[in-house]
Amino acid sequence: MVASRAVGSLSRFTASRMLRCPGYICRSFTRSSALLTRTHINYGVKGDVAVIRINSPNSKVNTLGQEVHSEFIEVMNEVWSSNQIRSAVLISSKPGCFIAGADLNMLTACTTSQEVTQISQEAQRMFEKVEKSTKPIVAAINGSCLGGGLELAISCQYRIATKDKKTVLGSPEVLLGILPGAGGTQRLPKMVGVPAAFDMMLTGRGIRADRAKKMGLVDQLVEPLGPGIKPPEERTIEYLEEVAITFAKGLADKKISPKRDKGLVEKLTSYAMSIPFVRQQIYKKVEEKVRKQTKGLYPAPLKIIDVVKTGIEQGSDAGYLSESQKFGELAMTKESKALMGLYRGQTLCKKNKFGAPQKEVKQLAILGAGLMGAGIAQVSVDKGLQTILKDATLAALGRGQQQVFRGLNDKVKKKALTSFERDTFFSNLTGQLDYQGFEKADMVIEAVFEDLSLKHKVLKEVEAVIPDHCVFASNTSALPINEIAAASKRPEKVIGMHYFSPVDKMQLLEIITTQKTSKDTTASAVEVGLKQGKVIIVVKDGPGFYTTRCLAPMMSEVIRILQEGVGPKKLDSLTTSFGFPVGAATLVDEVGVDVAKHVAENLGNVFGERFAGGSLEVLKQMISKGFLGRKSGKGFYIYQEGVKSKNLNSDIDSILASLKMPSQPDVSSDEDIQYRLVTRFVNEAVLCLQEGVLATPTEGDIGAVFGLGFPPSLGGPFRFVDLYGAQKIVDRLRKYEAAYGKQFTPCQLLVDHASSPNKKFYQ
Amino acid sequence: MTSLLTYTLKYLPSTSQWALRFSMRPLSCSSQLRAAAAVKAKSKQTLAKPNMRNIVVVDGVRTPFLLSGTSYKDLMPHDLARAALSGLLHRTSVPKDVVDYIIFGTVIQEVKTSNVAREAALGAGFSDKTPAHTVTMACISSNQAMTTAVGLIASGQCDVVVAGGVELMSDVPIRHSRKMRKMMLDLSKAKTLGQRLSLVSKFRLNFLSPELPAVAEFSTNETMGHSADRLAAAFAISRLEQDEYALRSHSLAKKAQGEGLLSDVVPFKVPGKDTVTQDNGIRPSSLEQMAKLKPAFIKPYGTVTAANSSFLTDGASAVLILAEEKALAMGYKPKAYLRDFVYVSQDPKDQLLLGPTYATPKVLEKAGLTMNDIDAFEFHEAFSGQILANLKAMDSDWFAQNYMGRKTKVGSPPLEKFNIWGGSLSLGHPFGATGCRLVMATANRLQKEGGQYGLVAACAAGGQVCHRSIIGASRKSFPWKQNKFIQECLI
Q1: What is d(CA A503, CA A500) in angstroms, rounded to the nearest whole number?
Q2: Which of the residues A173, A510, A527, A684 is marked catalytic?
Q3: Which of A499, A465, A517, A482 is nearest to A368 (CA)?
Q4: Is residue A556 domain-shared with residue A523, that is, in the same domain?
Q5: Domain end: A289, A309, A332, which one?
Q6: pLDDT tens per residue, range B244-286
Q7: Mean pLDDT of all residues in A263-291
Q8: How many domains does chain A have?
Q9: What does the DSSP 8-state code read for residue A745?
C-alpha cells in the first residue's frame, strides 16, 4: 500500500511540470560583504523570546545568500550565548514571503562542483546547529517558504504558518536540476514520511498551509486577518509573531511538546517503512517510475532518490555527505544550467517591458467561443476581468460556456477554488450572439476561424461598435497581423495575441506587433496576458511569427521521415526520448492535420525551399479521408472516448506507402533522425533572431519550450547552441545539407557563432 | 405637530415616576443627567419629516429567552411565536381584527411551518383574514420584520402591523443526505417492482449520513465564531478585554433583571412544565473562572470562548407598530417613534461582524444627528470580541479613512449609554427574535431615563436611532447587513 502511494504520488511528475516553479528567485548581490552592519537579519527580545526578523533590503523576497548566511550565524550565536533569551521566533518582515529559496546567483557563480559542495556543507552545518538548539526555535511562516527556506524551517523545533493562499511550502530544487542541499533530503523523509518526501522533492510541487498541517510539515496554522487597526498584511504578520511567541514560551517552559500525534495511516506507514524489504521495494518503484518519466534526461530525480536512500540506509552522516556531493555535481550539469536559464527567462517574461498602459483593461470581449475563445475566456474571468464571449450560434456559444464552467469546476474538485468562488468568477462571463456591450470594451480578442476574409469581416463589424481606445487583438497562429490590420481604420490598435491550446494549461502567450502597432497597444496586450497568468514573448510580425515559423520546418521534416518509412510510433519514441514532451506524430494529430497543412502551405509559399522536405500530399490525402487528428477521432492514431491506449491508424500506411521516399542510410540512424528534426528547428529559431523577429535569445528559448515543447532539459534552442556547441550543430547541418540540400543550410548567425567559440547567446 | 407636542406633555408625569426609581442606579443616573443636559443641545428637536406618516411602537413583548435544550426544548417554533403574540395581545389589548398584517423573522426554518408567522397568528387567535409572512435575514430577521412594517405603514398600505421574530435552537432540521433524498424521491415515482428494486439496489450505507444545518457562512465556509476570533485579533483585542466585557454584560443584565427593568418579558406557561418567568442565561461569573475556558473556535490559541460569546437561545418577540394618527385615535400612549433605518453590507469574510461600524455614521447622517445626540445605544452583542472590535473601529480614523471612505472617525458610543441593561451575551440571542428585543430595550430605556434619541445596531443586522426613545438592534450571525432606525418617543 505504501508503495502504491509513493508511486501514485509520482504520477503527476512530468517534464512539463518541471517548468512550473513559482518563487525561486535570482537576486543579484548589490552589497559588498565588507559592510559589517547587519542588513538582512535583525532581532529584538520580547520577554525571554528573541524575535529574529529577516528582511532583505531592496527586494520583494528573502533569499539565502552568503551574506544572509553569515548574518544568520552571528545572530544565532548571540541568541545562544545570551542568558536572557530562552527561546526564539524566526519570521520574515515581508508580506508574502518567508524565504523563497537559495540565491541562484550564488550557485551559478561557482565554477567547480567543489565550491558548490562547500556551500552546501556550510548550510548543512548551520541548520544542524539550529536543529540541535537547546533553546527552542519557532519558524513563523507567512508567504512562500521554498527550497532553502523550507530546509531552514524544518530544522527549527516548531513551525507555525499562516493559512494564506500565498503561503506555499515546497522543494522546487528538482525543477532547477538540483536537489535540496541543506539537509532537506535527510530531514524531510523523517518529518513527513518517505513517500510524501519523495513526492515533494521529485515533483517540486508547492504545498499549501492546510495540507502542510495535515502532513505534519507545520505544527500550527494562523488564519490571515482582515482589516483592523492596521493594513491586513501588516497586522497578520504581527499576529503571527504574537502567536509564535506564545508557542516559543510554551516550548521553553515545556508546556507544549514539539512532538505531534500521528494518525493511524501515518503510524502504519512509518511501521511499514521500518521493514527493509518494503523500503527497497519503494526505492525500486519510485526509481522505475522516475526513469520512465524522465527517460534518463534529467539526472536530479535519480540522485535525490539515491541521497535519501543513503541517509536512511547508512545513517545521516553518510546522507549529508552524499547530499552535498551530489548537490555539487548536479549544479555543474548542463541540465541544471538549462533549467536555471529557463527559470530566469520565465521571470523576465513575466514582466511588462512596455510599462503600464494608459487605460487598464477591465472589459474584455472575445469573438468566437471555440476551443481557443473559451479557453481565453476561462483564464480571464478567474482573474476578475469582465468578459463577453460572443459567437454566431447559440449551440457554439453554449459549448464555449460549458467549457469555461468545466474548467472552473475542475478546480473546485481539486479544491483549488470554492464553489462560491467558481460562481462569482463565472458571473464575470457574459455569453451573447450580438455586439451589445462592445461599446464599453477595452479590448477585443478575436478567435474566429483562420480565414483572412472572415477576420476582415469581424474586424470591420467590431470597429463599428467599439470605442476609440479599444484594442483589437487577433488570436491567429499563422496569418500575418499586418494583413489583418490592412482592413482596419486604426492599425495602431491592432495586435496579435497567439495563445496556445489548451489555453488554461499552456503558459505561453506570443504577442505579435506590426510596424504600425503603438507601444501603448503592446503594453495593454502584455498587461492583459500577465493578468491571465501567461509567460509572454513579444515578437515582430512576419509569416508564422516566431513559434509557428520554427515548428513548420520541423513538421516538414516529420512528414519526410514518415515517408522514408519510419513508423509514427517509432518516430514518437525517438522524439520523446530526446526530451520533447509530445511525440512528433502525435503532435500533428493534436494540432490538427488540416491546420498543419494550412500552415505548411502558407509558409511554404513564403519561404520556399527552406521549408520543403516532406510532401504536402501526405497531409492532403489524410484530409481527404477525414483523418484530421484527434478532433476527428483519427489521424496517425485512432482516438476513442474513454480509451487511453492509442492504436495506429492502419489506413495511413497505404498513404505513406504510395508516397514513399527512399531513405538515405547515412543520415537515418536514430540519432540522425532526432538531430534532423532539432537542427532544423534550431536553425530557424536562430534565423528569427538574426532577422530581428525575436528581440532576445531568452524570448526564443521561452517561446520554444513553453509554447512548442522544445526539450526543457536543453533549455531552448539558443541555450542548446551555447551548451552543445554551435560548431557541432553547424557540422550536423552541413552533413544533412549534403544529403538533402538547402533546407539544412545553417544561417549566418549560427555560422558566426561556430566560427568564434567565444560568442554565446548567453554570456 | 402641535398635537404631538401636547401629547408629549401629557405623558410627562408617567416618565418622571420611572425616573425616580431610576435615579437609584448610579450608572444610569449619570447617563440620565447627561441625557437631560443633552436634550437642549440636540441637533434636532424632532425627526418628523414633512409629508411622511409618523410611525410609532405602541409596545412590545418577548418570551423569556432560554438556553437551548431547557424548558422550551419540546416546543415547536410557532408555539413560541404564538406565546409572544398572545403576550402582545394581552399587553396592548389591541383588537385582533384591527391588525392589518403580521410579519415574523426567523433564521433556521422549521420545514413544517415555513411561514411561521401565519401558523403562529392563526394559533394565537388572530383573524384568519389577517395576512402574515415570514422574513429571513440572519440575525437581523426581526429588524427586517419591523422595517418591513414601517414600509407598509409609510406607504399607506397598512395602519396596524405586528412585527416579531422567533428562533428555536433546541430543534433544528437535520436532513437526509442528497443521495438519500434523491433515491427516496425517485422511489416515490417508480411504478414497477423492478424499477423499485433497481433503485434500492443502488443504496449505499453512506446515504444514511445526515446533513446538519450549516453553521458556516455559505460563501466563505467560515463559522461565525471563527470570524469573530479573527476580527478580535485584527483589532488586537485581548482575551482579558473580551472576558471583562462579557462579565459587564452579565452583571448589568443581572442587575436589570433584579430591578425589574426587563419589562418586555412576559411569563410563558410551557405545556407540561412550570411557567417560565425570566431569562435563564444570565450568569455573572468571575474573571478567574472565565480565564480557565479553552478557546472554542481557533484552537489552541484563539481568544473567543464559550464565556465571551452569545449562546444558543430559544425565544420569541413581538412589537405592535402603528401609524401615529391611528395609535392616537385608538387611545394608545406609544412608547417610541421609529424614524430612520439603514441596511449596509460588507465583505462576508473579513468584515462579517463590522456592520454597526458602517451603519452608525450613515444612519446618524441620514437623521441629521451626531453621536452626542443619542441617549441610548443598544447594540447586538454576538461576541465580546465583535462588540469591542466595532467600538475600536468606530474610534479609528485610520479605519474610517481606509475602509469607510470617511475623513474622520464617527467616534465610539460612551459605555455609560451602551447596553446598560445587558445584551445578547447575557440575555441570549434567539437569532430571529433579537431585533425586537433591542428596539424595546431602547424604547424602555429612553422612557425610563428621559432620553430622546436611541440607536439600535446589529451586525449582519440593523441599528436604529430614536428620537427620545429608541434604537434598533441587530444580530450576530448575518454578516453583511445592518440597519438603523430612528425612533422618536412620545412621553
Answers
A1: 6
A2: A510
A3: A499
A4: no
A5: A332
A6: 999 999 999 999 999 999 999 999 999 999 999 999 999 999 9
A7: 89
A8: 3
A9: P
Question: A90 pLDDT exceeds 60?
Answer: yes
Instruction: Report the share of chain B in percent with pLDDT over 70.
Output: 85
Give the chain B residue nearest A239 (alpha carbons). B233
Residue A3, in any domain of the structure: no
pLDDT at B485: 41
Residues in chain B: 491
pLDDT score for A732: 95
Residue tagged active-site, from B158, B436, B459, B466: B459
pLDDT > 90? residue B389? yes
Per CB-CB distance under 8 Å, the chain B contacts of A223 are: 226, 229-230, 298
Each residue's pLDDT tens digit, A339-383: 999 999 999 999 999 999 999 999 999 999 999 999 999 999 999
> How many residue pairs bridge chain A and chain B with CB atoms within 8 Å of each other?
56
Contact A227 B230 (CB under 8 A): no
Say if the Cβ atoms of A420 and B230 lie within 8 Å.
Answer: no
Subunit contact A229:B396, Cβ cutoff 8 A: yes
Is the separation of the CB atoms in A293 and A16 below 8 Å? no
Cα B250 → chain centroid:
17
Is A698 part of any domain?
Answer: yes
Whether residues A324 and A370 share a domain: the answer is no
Which residues of chain A neighbour B219 with C-beta distances below 8 Å?
420
Which range marks the domain in which residue A703 is found?
A: 547-755
pLDDT at B41: 65
Residue in chain B nearest A219 by alpha carbon: B300
Examine the fold and report which residue of A532, A560, A582 is the final residue of a domain before the chain moves on.
A532
- Is residue B220 within 8 angstroms of chain A, CB to CB? yes
- Grouping H, G, I as helix, E, B as strand and the rest as coil, residue B434 is helix
| A9 domain residue, yes or no | no
Residue type, B1: M
Model confidence at B219, in pLDDT bands (50, 70, 90)?
confident
pTM: 0.88
Residue A27 covered by a domain:
no
| pLDDT score of A675 more than 90 | yes
Least Cα distance to A619 among A588, A581, A650 occurs for: A588
Per residue in B276-297, pLDDT tens? 999 999 999 999 999 999 999 9
Name the residue in chain A with its Cα closest to that of B396: A229
**A162, A222, A230, A237: which to substitute to probe chain B, counting the most B Cβ within 10 Å?**
A230
Q: Would the CB atoms of B233 and A225 count as touching at under 8 Å?
A: yes
Q: Is B226 on the interface with A (CB under 8 A)?
A: yes
Domain B55-173+219-472 carries which CATH code? 3.40.47.10
Q: Provide, as residue numbers in chain B, all residues whose Cβ is less than 8 Å from the Cβ of A229.
A: 234-236, 392, 396, 398-399
Q: How far apart are CA B307 and CA B299, in angstroms?
A: 15
Task: Give the Cα separation of B53 and B339 in Å (integer).
Answer: 10
CA-nearest of A545, A497, A513, A507 to A366 is A497
Cell numbers at B163, concatenated: 412585527
The answer to whether residues A324 and A367 belong to one domain is no
Residue A129 in grid coordinates:
546547529
Q: Tell me which chain A residues have a C-beta less than 8 angstroms from the C-beta of B234.
A: 225-229, 232, 235, 239
According to DSSP, the residues that pair with B455 across neighbouring strands are B377, B465
Q: Is A510 a catalytic residue?
A: yes
Q: CATH number of the domain that A492 lies in?
A: 3.40.50.720
Whether A232 and B234 lie within 8 Å, measured CB to CB: yes
Q: Which three cell numbers stand for residue B48?
A: 418628523
pLDDT, mean over chain B: 84
ipTM of predicted assembly, 2 dp: 0.85
Confidence of residue B214 (pLDDT cuts 50, 70, 90): confident
B238 shares contact with chain A (CB less than 8 Å): no
- B478 close to A (CB below 8 A): no
